[in-house]
Design brief:
The complex is a heterodimer of chains A (260) and B (325). With 260 residues, chain A is mainly α. Chain A has a single domain, classed as MetI-like (MetI-like fold), CATH 1.10.3720. In chain A, 79% of the residues lie in helices and 0% in strands. Chain A has twelve helices and no strands. In chain A, helix 3 packs parallel to helix 7 and helix 3 packs antiparallel against helix 9. Chain B is an alpha/beta fold and 325 residues long. Chain B folds into two domains: 147 residues, Periplasmic binding protein-like II (D-Maltodextrin-Binding Protein, domain 2), CATH 3.40.190; 144 residues, D-Maltodextrin-Binding Protein, domain 2, CATH 3.40.190.10. In chain B, strand 1, helix 2 and strand 2 form a beta-alpha-beta unit. In chain B, helix 3 runs parallel beside helix 4. The radius of gyration of chain B is 23 Å and the shape is elongated. The relative contact order of chain B is 0.18. The chains are: A mainly alpha (260), B alpha/beta (325).
Amino acid sequence: MKHVDPFVGLTLATSLLILAFILLPLVEMVVQPSVGDLYRTLLDPDVRRAILLSLYTSGLAAIISLLLGTPLAYLLARRNFKGRKLIESAIDLPIMIPHPVVGIAILSMAGRGHWLGGLLHDLGVTIMGSITGIVVVLTFVGLPFYLNTVKNGIEAIPPRMENISRSLGAGMTATFLRVTLPLAWRSMLVGAIMCMARAISEFGAVVIVAYHPMTAPVMVYERFTAYGLKYSQPVAVWLILTCLILFLALRVFSLPRRST
Amino acid sequence: MKMKTLVLFLLAGFCLCLTAPALAEEIKGKVVIFHAGSLTVPFAEMEKRFEAAHPGVDILREAGGSTKMARMISELGKPADIMASADYKVIDNTLIPAHADWNVRFASNQLVLCYTDKSKAASEINPDNWYEILARPGVIWGHSDPNLDPCGYRSLMVLQLAEKYYRQPGLYDKLLANRPLKNVRPKSVELVSLLKTGNMDYAWEYLSVAVQHDLKYVKLPSEINLGDYKFDDYYKQAKVQVTGKSPGKFITRTGMSCTYGLTLIKSAPNPRAAEAFLAYLLSPDGGLAILKEMGQPPFEPAWVTDEAMKKRLPVPLRGLVEVRN
């Protein structure tokens, strides 16, 4: 009789449990609305606008994280300096802070009562109720996900490669662009996906800074409280499907090519 | 031996019967109250004092636009014991008769234009020029969502009445043109934090909220501030269209003096403790006194529209409410 290691059974059982835990509520939500409700919701221009706004603002947050966050990720991966652990903990703060608190903090700084807010108002930049404000909030909550992913990705690249490049005469920028980047771009893409995924689902902070223009999560909540489940579920379904397709595509794109 | 156990049982049963009334006196459990955002400060104080007097009770409040809170009960089936609305009509339209049987009017309010010393033109605004300042480009002013909050549609009514009162045709549209959607918030008390952080210059609020949050405000003539029931015929001129039960359906709200209403929900999970709280709320030295000291004039006593409704009230409340036609 074949002896199966109980480890296998245990692992399978708990894995199935976890998968069911994740998939059951989502499947339930997708099948509950009728096809008619889903179609009508897709035709609603407000819904389409909200989903597009969510995609746009979270995409922008991911791009900003990529452009401005990569240097910090590189620094944390390569250099060991005093206070490094402190900075790494600080980067994780946006994950821990309750979302409404994030919104309140940003809103307090954005008003005329604050020196920075006063300056922004004089320059004509509004944070409250604007796309700028939404992107600021989404970048704040998405940055840790980008930074941690890319930091780990760069740490996995042997520094030897960069050292060889430098020893052969290439400057720091050239080394980064021609050696590090080609090896790190997959983790940067995954980091950007994580950042965008986190940003697109943000609600608590966004609803405080900007109720209008409405992102998709805010619309789901507004419809839920104003009209009920029947009118909010279809919006949630379309948002989930859109994100699923987008992230699946990006992940497939980032798969390493099989070596011959 | 058998006799002894029988006597013991009878004795135990007798003692239980003695203590049963005492147990019945004790009020305990959770009481869920859905209420208007503008009632937050006075209700928080009532909660504190009531819980101190009845340690077994845990009052759980949830505040929001009254329309939204009522729909949570009627459309979403969220469990609640009490509903207190900034507009009694919300209870009449949304909760009676399926979720409530009666509607007690317990307080009034009026609308004022709030601001802080950080607001633009704060030093020059007064009851005669406020509508000119609100029309100025660069002035950020807002109100709550008329679809979710009575304060929202009441703000719009004030503007409509202002157009008639100050004899300025087109004023309503002119003012709304200077109020982009981003200045509309679901709950009126959210506007307070926007004012205080300097993100908004002027906001339409109830007088009680302005007083409770230490805001500066412009008081308006009784003809337009929706605060005096004697001007109900003048207020009737204002009409605002708001969304109905589903997207695409609309209801028209007609101007009337601010009258707050409350009711006990039929499917209340804890009716006894809820009735005790309502009795406290409606007593002149209990909740009504708290409302008065916080800048919101209560009706003393609270009232209902007819004798039949008074008979439907729970027994502890009948003595605290009068009939007014």
